[in-house]
Write a structure and sequence with these properties.
Beta Polymerase, domain 2; two-stranded antiparallel ribbon
Length: 186
C-alpha cells in the first residue's frame, strides 16, 4: 500500500513530522528482544486481559537482520475501532496514539514511551496480524529471503525520505514477494 502525503496527514494523529534524512539501519542487536519484553510487560500491565495477543514483529524480531532500532509490536484487541476500550489505559502508560487508519483493517499505531517502538493495534482475527507473524517467522528461518530483504532495506535506507512511511512503502514489493513464498510454504 503506497500512501500519499495527503493520505498520511489524514491518518496521522497530531503533527506530521518530516524525516528528510536517510534511514539509520543498525546490525542486529541481541538487546532488541529484551526491549520488546519490557514493552510487552507495559502493555499487559495497562490492558490486562484486553490484550488478546502481543507479539514482537518487524525486523528487530528477526535475529541476524539489520533494522531501524525501533521495536515493532502487534497487539490484538477485541475491536480496534473501539478506542475507548484500550487507548486510555495505554495513554496512562505514556503511549501516544499517532496513526488511525479506519479503512485499513481499523489499524491504530501508538508510539511507545522511553524505548523507541511502535505498537500496531488490530482486532483479534485480523488477517494482517497473520501476515505480520508469517513474514517474521519466514525471515527467521529462510536465509535467502532474509538476505534479500536486508539488501533491499540497505539500498532503500541509503536514500533520503521525506517520511519514514515512504521508506516502508518502497519495501512493499519485496515484502509481498517474500510473504508470498512464506504463505505458500505454510
Amino acid at each position: 500500500m503506497r500512501i500519499s502525503e495527503k493520505q498520511l496527514a489524514a491518518v496521522t494523529v497530531g503533527e506530521l513530522r518530516p524525516l528528510n534524512k536517510p534511514i539509520a539501519l543498525q546490525p542486529y542487536n541481541p538487546d532488541w528482544p529484551v526491549f520488546y519484553g519490557k514493552l510487552e510487560r507495559q502493555v499487559h500491565a495497562a490492558l490486562g486481559s484486553k490484550a488478546l495477543l502481543i507479539a514482537h514483529v518487524g525486523s528487530t524480531s528477526v535475529p541476524g537482520l539489520s533494522a531501524k532500532p525501533v521495536i515493532d509490536m502487534v497487539l490484538a484487541v477485541a475491536n480496534s475501532a473501539d478506542e475507548d476500550a484500550y487507548i486510555p489505559p495505554l495513554e496512562g502508560a505514556r503511549y501516544t496514539l499517532r496513526i488511525r487508519e479506519p479503512e485499513w483493517f481499523q489499524h491504530r499505531m501508538l508510539k511507545t514511551p522511553v524505548i523507541d517502538g511502535n505498537l500496531h493495534v488490530f482486532s483479534q482475527g485480523c488477517e494482517e496480524i497473520g501476515r505480520m507473524l508469517a513474514l517474521r517467522n519466514w525471515l527467521r528461518t529462510n536465509e535467502n529471503d532474509r538476505s534479500l530483504y536486508e539488501r533491499t532495506k540497505r539500498e532503500l535506507a541509503a536514500r533520503s525520505w521525506r517520511y519514514t512511511q515512504n521508506y516502508a512503502d518502497a519495501k512493499s514489493d519485496v515484502v509481498r514477494e517474500i510473504l508470498g513464498r512464506a504463505l505458500n510454504d505454510a
